[in-house]
Amino acid sequence: xxKITAPRxxxxxxxxxxxxxxxxxxxxxxxxHRFGFREIRFPTFEDAALFDRGVGETTDVVQKEMxxxxxxxxxxxxxxxxxxxxxxxxxxxxxxxxxxxxxxxxYIAPNFRYEKPQAGRLREHHQFGVECFGSADxxxxxxxxxxxATLLRELGITxxxxxxxxxxxxxxxxxxxxxxxxxxxxxxxxLCETCNSRLDRxxxxxxxCKSDICKGIAKDAPKITDFLCDSCKxxxxxxxxxxxxxxxxxxxxxxLVRGLDYYTNTVFExxxxxxxxxxxxxxxxxxNGLVESLGGPEMPGLGFGCGIERLLLTLxxxxxxxxxxxxxEVFVAHAEAxxxxxxxxxxxxxxxxxxxxxxxxxxxxxxxxxxxAGKIGAKYSVVLGGNEISEGKINxxxxxxxxxxxxxxxxDAIKANI
Length: 418
Hints:
With 418 residues, the protein is α+β, with helices and mostly antiparallel strands. The protein has helices at residues 15-34, 48-54, 60-65, 84-93, 138-155, 170-185, 193-201, 212-218, 230-245, 290-293, 308-317, 340-352, 366-375, 386-391, 411-417; strands spanning 38-39, 45-47, 68-70, 76-79, 103-112, 124-133, 161-166, 251-252, 264-272, 279-286, 301-307, 330-334, 357-359, 380-384, 393-398, 404-408. The longest helix is centred in the first third of the chain and has 20 residues, at 15-34.
């Protein structure tokens, strides 16, 4: 019979790997709480129209990468390709604006994109994201960026560089789109088919094309910073002054637009060379207008996302993978068949006291039980036989150094001595 394997672009997280994920996720949650963000959870699939309208019909995410299908009720459904649109949908549907603003939330959730699998970029990947609603001031931008900078610093990812840009507002973009259209129209024959389709509808998306040819053409394209209105210039200048005040250095990148249509004003990325070619480990920006476009009230918003897999790969490359291997505290072996029920009860009592205890359930010999205890890394071991049971005393063995101490045959006494 043919073996069934995991779908291409997905990955099992094995028991020996999970602890690193748990430690990282705990750090992310603690940091988010420190900055005043509370957790939100949302469905894995949504109405596909949410991403068509929210993310943008001309983005790679919607045009090429979204997993969408019609369900048995003939509803057009999509597996979530990114988190922000889902948070905004929940914000509107549950009237979260009525609970006090600004509202700050975070999430750790899987996303799904049909793209070429590569290191740190899977078809099912996990993302830590933060979103802030209700503040249009540049101080909120600085706070979100500083959260990202703090995250990377505290994880020990110190080789990152912050790239910063403003992609303006709707008014700025009218002139900018016209300039881009004029520039790229002279290069139509060189552009890829996808970029040609974007030329009339949304020429800014050409700046985000992954084709090397289109990237080369885009290098000499007009820059959005030359088209910013007075209000957007003032916002960007204020943000930069906040970042300067708290010592966050940055590189101005006028070609940075990010890959989603909802961004306005501030966009940013933290890039690292730890994985070889320079790559983004964390990115986001402001999305004023997104809430209204999805049927909600006028509401400024901003946030960022970072891939858990990519963070772990970066930490591994730096030799800083979270270390915290979990092993049993006590292994209870039995030397005789009549001692098995006592071993079973002792393990149960230890677990009730919060101790990770294990025993053999496969019928191994005593020698094989002790070999297994060493294999799973148990910190202590106990051997139960007729003498131990009749005398009510046991020898507690430290499996690392071999030291043995005597104590009473009870869960309380074992817990007190380990």
